[in-house]
Amino acid sequence: MREAAGREGYRAGFESAREEGLRAGREAAQAEGRQLAVQLAQAISGFEAGVAQLEQTVADDLLALALEIARKVSHQAVAAQPLVILDVIREALTQLPLQHAMIHLNPDDAALVRANAGEHLTRAGHRILEDLHLERGDVVIDAGGAHLDARLATRWQRVIASLNQDTPWLAADEAGQS
């Protein structure tokens, strides 16, 4: 009887300890699973943030490259097609009151404008003035108290500001162009 009671006690204790061990193991496994799930979620979040940062960096780099290409193309366009200055002058004059204007240009551009549109501009009462401080493609117009700055650098900054960028204009000699 003692022996049967001992076996019964041993079996009951064993079963109780086994159930307690299984319950403790399940709770530990669930806690570890929750912790691993949190760590995995953090890792995924960090990965997504890294990908987003990489995408933004690539986009910024592509925009910077595009702006640099645009700047170089602008310098080359002015050098290759200097008559585009006439379009800049026409557009600038449309923004000013219909009064006699003083058109300030680089000396090379002034000679070109005089040769191609000087008579027309003079008949309209405009004067072409040479300004050694202006680079090729720059136009500054004063008319009736109004001042219009259509220098390449100013036009560039307007475009750049519309893109929420701050990329300075470089003169042809600063940009490595001749």
* CATH third-tier fold name of the largest domain: hypothetical protein PF0899 fold
Report strand %. Answer: 5-15%
User: Order of strands across the widest beta sheet?
Assistant: 2-1-3-4
Number of helices: 4
Instruction: State the share of residues found in helices, binned by percent.
Output: 55-70%
Assigned CATH architecture of the largest domain: 2-Layer Sandwich
How many domain units? 2
What's the main sheet like?
4 strands, mixed
Q: Output the CATH class name of the largest domain.
A: Alpha Beta
Task: Indicate the structural class.
Answer: alpha+beta
- The CATH superfamily of the largest domain turns out to be ATP synthase, E subunit, C-terminal
Q: How would the global form be characterised?
A: rod-shaped
Averaged pLDDT, please?
84
Key features of this structure:
alpha+beta; 66% helix; 178 residues; 4 strands; four-stranded mixed β-sheet; rod-shaped
